[in-house]
Protein backbone atom coordinates (compact mmCIF):
# COMPACT_ATOMS: atom_id res chain seq x y z
CA UNK A 1 0.00 0.00 0.00
CA UNK A 2 1.64 3.24 -1.06
CA UNK A 3 2.05 5.78 1.66
CA UNK A 4 -0.64 8.43 1.89
CA UNK A 5 0.93 11.84 1.45
CA UNK A 6 -1.80 14.23 0.60
CA UNK A 7 -5.54 14.75 0.72
CA UNK A 8 -6.92 16.96 -1.95
CA UNK A 9 -10.07 18.93 -1.45
CA UNK A 10 -12.19 16.68 -3.64
CA UNK A 11 -11.44 13.77 -1.38
CA UNK A 12 -9.15 11.91 -3.76
CA UNK A 13 -5.88 10.86 -2.26
CA UNK A 14 -2.51 11.46 -3.82
CA UNK A 15 0.02 8.75 -3.23
CA UNK A 16 3.77 8.50 -3.39
CA UNK A 17 4.07 5.40 -5.53
CA UNK A 18 7.10 6.57 -7.49
CA UNK A 19 8.96 7.54 -4.37
CA UNK A 20 8.40 4.15 -2.78
CA UNK A 21 10.86 2.44 -5.11
CA UNK A 22 13.34 5.31 -5.24
CA UNK A 23 12.29 6.35 -8.73
CA UNK A 24 10.92 9.79 -7.90
CA UNK A 25 12.21 12.39 -10.33
CA UNK A 26 12.62 14.83 -7.49
CA UNK A 27 12.62 13.17 -4.07
CA UNK A 28 11.56 15.25 -1.06
CA UNK A 29 14.33 16.75 1.06
CA UNK A 30 13.59 14.35 3.92
CA UNK A 31 14.12 11.41 1.56
CA UNK A 32 17.15 12.75 -0.30
CA UNK A 33 18.93 13.57 2.93
CA UNK A 34 17.48 10.88 5.18
CA UNK A 35 20.98 9.68 6.10
CA UNK A 36 22.16 13.10 7.20
CA UNK A 37 18.98 13.74 9.18
CA UNK A 38 19.36 10.41 10.96
CA UNK A 39 23.00 11.05 11.82
CA UNK A 40 22.13 14.51 13.13
CA UNK A 41 19.29 13.18 15.27
CA UNK A 42 21.63 10.57 16.76
CA UNK A 43 24.40 13.08 17.51
CA UNK A 44 22.06 15.80 18.76
CA UNK A 45 21.88 15.99 22.56
CA UNK A 46 20.56 19.53 22.83
CA UNK A 47 17.00 20.26 23.94
CA UNK A 48 14.37 19.98 21.21
CA UNK A 49 11.19 22.05 21.15
CA UNK A 50 7.98 20.03 21.37
CA UNK A 51 7.61 17.61 18.42
CA UNK A 52 10.79 18.80 16.73
CA UNK A 53 12.89 16.02 15.21
CA UNK A 54 16.08 17.98 15.94
CA UNK A 55 17.26 20.80 18.18
CA UNK A 56 17.48 24.29 16.65
CA UNK A 57 21.26 23.89 16.58
CA UNK A 58 21.01 20.65 14.60
CA UNK A 59 18.49 22.16 12.18
CA UNK A 60 20.90 25.04 11.50
CA UNK A 61 23.75 22.56 11.02
CA UNK A 62 21.61 20.58 8.58
CA UNK A 63 21.06 23.72 6.51
CA UNK A 64 24.54 25.20 6.71
CA UNK A 65 26.56 21.99 6.74
CA UNK A 66 29.28 20.81 9.11
CA UNK A 67 31.06 17.75 10.44
CA UNK A 68 29.66 15.78 13.36
CA UNK A 69 31.74 14.36 16.21
CA UNK A 70 31.61 10.88 14.63
CA UNK A 71 32.98 12.25 11.37
CA UNK A 72 29.68 12.33 9.44
CA UNK A 73 29.77 15.16 6.94
CA UNK A 74 26.60 17.24 6.63
CA UNK A 75 26.49 18.92 3.23
CA UNK A 76 25.53 22.60 3.15
CA UNK A 77 22.07 23.10 1.67
CA UNK A 78 22.00 26.86 1.97
CA UNK A 79 25.04 28.98 1.22
CA UNK A 80 24.68 32.36 2.84
CA UNK A 81 24.94 34.24 6.12
CA UNK A 82 24.72 31.92 9.15
CA UNK A 83 22.71 34.51 11.05
CA UNK A 84 19.87 34.34 8.54
CA UNK A 85 19.46 30.64 9.12
CA UNK A 86 19.72 31.04 12.88
CA UNK A 87 17.00 33.70 12.91
CA UNK A 88 14.78 31.57 10.68
CA UNK A 89 15.16 28.46 12.82
CA UNK A 90 14.65 30.38 16.05
CA UNK A 91 11.48 31.95 14.69
CA UNK A 92 10.01 28.51 14.10
CA UNK A 93 10.51 27.71 17.76
CA UNK A 94 8.46 30.76 18.79
CA UNK A 95 4.78 31.50 18.30
CA UNK A 96 5.47 33.68 15.28
CA UNK A 97 5.41 32.30 11.76
CA UNK A 98 8.27 32.68 9.31
CA UNK A 99 8.11 34.68 6.09
CA UNK A 100 10.97 34.17 3.64
CA UNK A 101 11.20 37.13 1.33
CA UNK A 102 13.55 37.83 -1.56
CA UNK A 103 13.98 38.33 -5.28
CA UNK A 104 13.33 35.27 -7.49
CA UNK A 105 15.83 32.45 -7.28
CA UNK A 106 17.25 33.23 -3.85
CA UNK A 107 16.39 29.77 -2.47
CA UNK A 108 13.23 30.72 -0.59
CA UNK A 109 11.39 27.57 -1.59
CA UNK A 110 14.53 25.51 -1.13
CA UNK A 111 15.16 26.79 2.41
CA UNK A 112 11.49 26.38 3.33
CA UNK A 113 11.50 22.75 2.21
CA UNK A 114 14.69 21.91 4.09
CA UNK A 115 13.53 23.67 7.25
CA UNK A 116 10.28 21.69 7.25
CA UNK A 117 12.18 18.46 6.57
CA UNK A 118 14.62 19.05 9.42
CA UNK A 119 12.10 20.34 11.97
CA UNK A 120 9.15 18.02 11.30
CA UNK A 121 10.61 15.30 9.09
CA UNK A 122 7.99 16.15 6.47
CA UNK A 123 8.12 18.91 3.87
CA UNK A 124 4.95 17.94 2.05
CA UNK A 125 2.34 19.84 4.07
CA UNK A 126 2.31 22.45 1.35
CA UNK A 127 -0.17 24.97 -0.02
CA UNK A 128 0.86 26.44 -3.36
CA UNK A 129 -0.29 30.03 -3.56
CA UNK A 130 -1.79 31.24 -6.84
CA UNK A 131 -4.31 33.88 -7.85
CA UNK A 132 -6.90 31.07 -7.76
CA UNK A 133 -6.08 29.56 -4.37
CA UNK A 134 -9.42 29.10 -2.59
CA UNK A 135 -10.04 29.34 1.12
CA UNK A 136 -10.54 25.56 1.23
CA UNK A 137 -6.88 25.07 0.36
CA UNK A 138 -5.96 26.74 3.63
CA UNK A 139 -8.89 25.61 5.81
CA UNK A 140 -10.67 22.42 4.74
CA UNK A 141 -12.92 21.06 2.03
CA UNK A 142 -15.59 18.40 1.88
CA UNK A 143 -15.82 14.98 0.37
CA UNK A 144 -19.13 15.58 -1.38
CA UNK A 145 -20.16 11.94 -1.68
CA UNK A 146 -19.80 11.57 2.08
CA UNK A 147 -21.40 14.91 2.72
CA UNK A 148 -24.51 14.03 0.65
CA UNK A 149 -24.80 10.52 2.06
CA UNK A 150 -24.23 11.25 5.73
CA UNK A 151 -24.35 15.02 6.20
CA UNK A 152 -21.53 17.11 7.61
CA UNK A 153 -19.24 15.10 9.85
CA UNK A 154 -15.56 14.84 10.63
CA UNK A 155 -15.39 11.89 8.19
CA UNK A 156 -16.69 14.02 5.34
CA UNK A 157 -14.22 16.78 6.06
CA UNK A 158 -11.06 16.95 3.95
CA UNK A 159 -8.38 18.75 5.94
CA UNK A 160 -5.99 21.16 4.23
CA UNK A 161 -2.24 20.74 4.72
CA UNK A 162 -2.41 23.61 7.21
CA UNK A 163 -5.13 21.88 9.23
CA UNK A 164 -3.18 18.65 9.27
CA UNK A 165 -0.04 20.44 10.40
CA UNK A 166 -2.02 22.06 13.23
CA UNK A 167 -3.51 18.78 14.37
CA UNK A 168 -0.17 16.96 14.29
CA UNK A 169 2.09 19.76 15.56
CA UNK A 170 4.04 19.94 12.32
CA UNK A 171 5.44 22.59 9.98
CA UNK A 172 3.08 23.80 7.24
CA UNK A 173 4.35 25.62 4.17
CA UNK A 174 2.63 28.27 2.06
CA UNK A 175 4.36 29.08 -1.21
CA UNK A 176 4.01 32.47 -2.92
CA UNK A 177 1.81 33.93 -0.20
CA UNK A 178 1.38 37.31 -1.94
CA UNK A 179 -0.14 35.69 -5.03
CA UNK A 180 -3.08 34.51 -2.94
CA UNK A 181 -6.07 36.90 -2.99
CA UNK A 182 -6.10 39.14 0.08
CA UNK A 183 -9.34 37.78 1.60
CA UNK A 184 -8.06 34.21 1.34
CA UNK A 185 -4.71 35.22 2.87
CA UNK A 186 -6.59 36.58 5.84
CA UNK A 187 -7.82 33.07 6.66
CA UNK A 188 -4.35 32.64 8.10
CA UNK A 189 -4.85 35.37 10.69
CA UNK A 190 -6.99 33.20 12.98
CA UNK A 191 -4.70 30.26 12.40
CA UNK A 192 -1.61 32.25 13.35
CA UNK A 193 -2.98 34.40 16.17
CA UNK A 194 -5.57 32.14 17.83
CA UNK A 195 -3.87 28.92 16.73
CA UNK A 196 -7.25 27.43 15.98
CA UNK A 197 -9.22 26.69 12.86
CA UNK A 198 -12.97 26.86 13.45
CA UNK A 199 -15.30 24.44 11.65
CA UNK A 200 -18.65 26.26 11.99
CA UNK A 201 -20.54 23.53 10.06
CA UNK A 202 -19.79 21.08 12.87
CA UNK A 203 -19.65 23.55 15.74
CA UNK A 204 -16.09 22.38 16.29
CA UNK A 205 -12.57 23.65 15.94
CA UNK A 206 -9.12 22.25 15.39
CA UNK A 207 -6.64 23.52 17.92
CA UNK A 208 -3.01 23.66 16.94
CA UNK A 209 -0.84 21.23 18.85
CA UNK A 210 2.56 22.38 20.15
CA UNK A 211 5.14 22.08 17.42
CA UNK A 212 2.89 23.62 14.78
CA UNK A 213 4.27 26.52 12.83
CA UNK A 214 4.13 27.90 9.33
CA UNK A 215 6.71 28.97 6.75
CA UNK A 216 5.55 31.23 3.94
CA UNK A 217 7.56 32.41 0.96
CA UNK A 218 6.95 35.52 -1.10
CA UNK A 219 8.65 37.19 -3.97
CA UNK A 220 9.98 40.74 -3.74
CA UNK A 221 9.03 41.42 -7.33
CA UNK A 222 5.43 40.38 -6.76
CA UNK A 223 4.97 42.87 -4.00
CA UNK A 224 1.86 44.86 -4.71
CA UNK A 225 0.14 42.00 -6.51
CA UNK A 226 -1.65 41.22 -3.29
CA UNK A 227 0.01 43.15 -0.54
CA UNK A 228 0.03 41.36 2.82
CA UNK A 229 -2.44 42.99 5.17
CA UNK A 230 -0.70 44.57 8.12
CA UNK A 231 -2.69 42.31 10.46
CA UNK A 232 -1.19 39.28 8.75
CA UNK A 233 2.28 40.75 8.42
CA UNK A 234 2.43 41.25 12.17
CA UNK A 235 2.04 37.50 12.65
CA UNK A 236 5.23 36.84 10.71
CA UNK A 237 8.91 37.33 11.34
CA UNK A 238 10.32 38.34 7.99
CA UNK A 239 13.69 37.01 6.88
CA UNK A 240 15.05 38.42 3.63
CA UNK A 241 17.19 36.03 1.61
CA UNK A 242 19.92 37.96 -0.24
CA UNK A 243 21.58 37.23 -3.56
CA UNK A 244 24.94 35.48 -3.07
CA UNK A 245 27.42 38.02 -1.70
CA UNK A 246 30.52 37.03 -3.67
CA UNK A 247 31.18 35.38 -7.04
CA UNK A 248 32.90 32.50 -5.21
CA UNK A 249 29.74 31.82 -3.17
CA UNK A 250 27.64 31.84 -6.30
CA UNK A 251 30.02 29.53 -8.19
CA UNK A 252 29.95 27.23 -5.18
CA UNK A 253 26.12 27.17 -5.12
CA UNK A 254 25.85 26.59 -8.86
CA UNK A 255 28.42 23.79 -9.02
CA UNK A 256 26.95 22.05 -5.98
CA UNK A 257 23.38 22.14 -7.30
CA UNK A 258 24.41 21.21 -10.84
CA UNK A 259 26.25 18.21 -9.38
CA UNK A 260 23.12 17.10 -7.48
CA UNK A 261 20.72 17.71 -10.37
CA UNK A 262 23.16 16.09 -12.82
CA UNK A 263 23.26 12.96 -10.68
CA UNK A 264 19.49 12.66 -10.69
CA UNK A 265 19.45 13.13 -14.48
CA UNK A 266 22.25 10.56 -14.75
CA UNK A 267 24.67 13.03 -16.30
CA UNK A 268 28.33 12.33 -15.63
CA UNK A 269 30.13 14.64 -13.20
CA UNK A 270 31.95 17.50 -14.90
CA UNK A 271 34.89 18.65 -12.82
CA UNK A 272 36.42 20.37 -15.88
CA UNK A 273 33.28 22.47 -16.17
CA UNK A 274 34.22 24.78 -13.31
CA UNK A 275 35.78 27.36 -15.62
CA UNK A 276 32.55 27.57 -17.63
CA UNK A 277 30.47 27.85 -14.48
CA UNK A 278 32.67 30.74 -13.40
CA UNK A 279 32.02 32.47 -16.70
CA UNK A 280 28.25 32.02 -16.52
CA UNK A 281 28.23 33.41 -12.98
CA UNK A 282 30.45 36.34 -13.99
CA UNK A 283 28.18 37.25 -16.92
CA UNK A 284 25.07 37.01 -14.74
CA UNK A 285 26.53 39.05 -11.91
CA UNK A 286 27.90 41.77 -14.17
CA UNK A 287 24.62 42.20 -16.04
CA UNK A 288 22.62 42.07 -12.81
CA UNK A 289 24.82 44.68 -11.09
CA UNK A 290 25.13 46.85 -14.21
CA UNK A 291 28.88 46.98 -13.66
CA UNK A 292 31.88 44.90 -14.71
CA UNK A 293 33.75 42.98 -12.01
CA UNK A 294 36.71 45.37 -12.17
CA UNK A 295 34.30 48.25 -11.55
CA UNK A 296 35.45 50.09 -14.69
CA UNK A 297 32.58 49.74 -17.14
CA UNK A 298 28.94 50.58 -16.48
CA UNK A 299 26.48 48.25 -18.17
CA UNK A 300 22.78 48.27 -18.89
CA UNK A 301 20.82 45.53 -17.08
CA UNK A 302 18.41 43.33 -19.03
CA UNK A 303 14.74 43.04 -18.01
CA UNK A 304 14.79 39.45 -16.70
CA UNK A 305 16.12 38.40 -13.30
CA UNK A 306 19.46 36.73 -13.77
CA UNK A 307 19.26 34.75 -10.57
CA UNK A 308 21.40 31.94 -9.26
CA UNK A 309 18.52 29.62 -10.10
CA UNK A 310 18.81 30.66 -13.75
CA UNK A 311 22.57 30.12 -13.73
CA UNK A 312 21.96 26.62 -12.37
CA UNK A 313 19.60 25.78 -15.20
CA UNK A 314 21.88 27.25 -17.88
CA UNK A 315 24.77 25.09 -16.66
CA UNK A 316 22.61 21.96 -16.27
CA UNK A 317 21.34 22.35 -19.83
CA UNK A 318 24.89 22.95 -21.03
CA UNK A 319 26.03 19.81 -19.31
CA UNK A 320 23.26 17.82 -20.97
CA UNK A 321 24.29 19.25 -24.36
CA UNK A 322 27.93 18.38 -23.73
CA UNK A 323 26.99 14.85 -22.67
CA UNK A 324 24.62 14.03 -25.49
CA UNK A 325 26.08 15.99 -28.38
CA UNK A 326 29.61 16.97 -27.35
CA UNK A 327 32.62 15.22 -25.88
CA UNK A 328 31.27 15.31 -22.34
CA UNK A 329 33.29 18.37 -21.35
CA UNK A 330 31.32 21.54 -20.67
CA UNK A 331 32.48 24.20 -23.14
CA UNK A 332 31.54 27.75 -24.08
CA UNK A 333 29.38 26.51 -26.96
CA UNK A 334 27.24 24.47 -24.56
CA UNK A 335 26.28 27.38 -22.33
CA UNK A 336 26.09 30.19 -24.91
CA UNK A 337 22.55 29.49 -26.10
CA UNK A 338 21.33 29.11 -22.52
CA UNK A 339 22.84 32.42 -21.50
CA UNK A 340 21.31 34.15 -24.49
CA UNK A 341 17.89 32.71 -23.61
CA UNK A 342 18.19 33.86 -20.00
CA UNK A 343 19.40 37.36 -20.85
CA UNK A 344 17.20 38.17 -23.83
CA UNK A 345 13.67 38.00 -22.46
CA UNK A 346 12.43 41.05 -24.29
CA UNK A 347 13.55 40.49 -27.90
CA UNK A 348 14.01 44.18 -28.69
CA UNK A 349 15.47 45.95 -25.65
CA UNK A 350 17.40 43.03 -24.14
CA UNK A 351 19.05 42.14 -27.42
CA UNK A 352 20.61 45.60 -27.57
CA UNK A 353 21.86 45.25 -23.99
CA UNK A 354 23.34 41.84 -24.80
CA UNK A 355 25.04 42.96 -28.03
CA UNK A 356 26.60 45.89 -26.25
CA UNK A 357 27.90 43.67 -23.45
CA UNK A 358 29.24 41.18 -25.94
CA UNK A 359 31.11 43.74 -28.00
CA UNK A 360 32.43 45.98 -25.25
CA UNK A 361 33.17 43.51 -22.45
CA UNK A 362 33.31 39.88 -23.62
CA UNK A 363 35.26 40.61 -26.78
CA UNK A 364 38.04 42.43 -24.97
CA UNK A 365 38.47 40.02 -22.10
CA UNK A 366 41.60 37.85 -21.95
CA UNK A 367 40.93 34.14 -22.37
CA UNK A 368 37.31 34.68 -23.40
CA UNK A 369 37.81 34.36 -27.18
CA UNK A 370 36.09 30.96 -27.39
CA UNK A 371 33.19 32.29 -25.35
CA UNK A 372 32.88 35.39 -27.53
CA UNK A 373 32.84 33.27 -30.67
CA UNK A 374 30.24 30.87 -29.25
CA UNK A 375 28.01 33.76 -28.22
CA UNK A 376 28.36 35.45 -31.60
CA UNK A 377 27.34 32.22 -33.28
CA UNK A 378 24.07 31.86 -31.33
CA UNK A 379 23.29 35.59 -31.30
CA UNK A 380 23.45 35.97 -35.07
N1 LIG B 1 22.16 30.82 -1.35
C1 LIG B 1 21.84 29.66 -1.89
N2 LIG B 1 22.25 28.51 -1.34
C2 LIG B 1 21.93 27.32 -1.90
N3 LIG B 1 21.18 27.16 -2.99
C3 LIG B 1 20.76 28.27 -3.60
C4 LIG B 1 21.05 29.57 -3.10
N4 LIG B 1 20.49 30.49 -3.91
C5 LIG B 1 19.85 29.79 -4.88
N5 LIG B 1 20.00 28.46 -4.70
C6 LIG B 1 19.45 27.42 -5.57
O1 LIG B 1 18.61 28.03 -6.51
C7 LIG B 1 17.55 27.16 -6.85
C8 LIG B 1 16.24 27.93 -6.89
O2 LIG B 1 15.84 28.25 -5.62
P1 LIG B 1 14.30 28.43 -5.23
O3 LIG B 1 13.42 27.77 -6.22
O4 LIG B 1 14.18 28.03 -3.81
O5 LIG B 1 14.17 30.00 -5.38
P2 LIG B 1 12.97 30.92 -4.91
O6 LIG B 1 13.60 32.00 -4.11
O7 LIG B 1 11.89 30.12 -4.30
O8 LIG B 1 12.54 31.53 -6.30
P3 LIG B 1 11.07 32.02 -6.77
O9 LIG B 1 10.89 33.39 -6.18
O10 LIG B 1 11.23 32.05 -8.25
O11 LIG B 1 10.08 31.03 -6.27
C9 LIG B 1 17.57 26.02 -5.88
O12 LIG B 1 18.00 24.88 -6.56
C10 LIG B 1 18.60 26.41 -4.84
O13 LIG B 1 19.35 25.31 -4.48
MG1 LIG C 1 9.91 29.72 -4.84
Automatic annotation (TrEMBL):
Pfam families: AAA_5. It comes from the Bacteria. SUPFAM superfamilies: P-loop containing nucleoside triphosphate hydrolases. Residues 98-236 form the ATPase dynein-related AAA domain. Residues 1-24 are annotated as: Disordered. Residues 1-15 have a biased composition (Polar residues). This is AAA family ATPase. It comes from Streptomyces bugieae. The lineage of its organism: Bacteria, Bacillati, Actinomycetota, Actinomycetes, Kitasatosporales.
Amino acid sequence: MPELINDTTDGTQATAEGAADGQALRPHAEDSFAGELKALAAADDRPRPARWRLSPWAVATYLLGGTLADGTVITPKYVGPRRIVEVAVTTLATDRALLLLGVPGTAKTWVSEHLAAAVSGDSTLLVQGTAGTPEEAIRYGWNYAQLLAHGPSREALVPSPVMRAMAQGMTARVEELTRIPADVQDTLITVLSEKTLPIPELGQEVQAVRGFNLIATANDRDRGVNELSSALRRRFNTVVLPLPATPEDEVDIVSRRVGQIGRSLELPPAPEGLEEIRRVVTVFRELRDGLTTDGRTKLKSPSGTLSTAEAISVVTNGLALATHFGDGVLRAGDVAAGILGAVVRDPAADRVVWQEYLETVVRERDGWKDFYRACREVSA
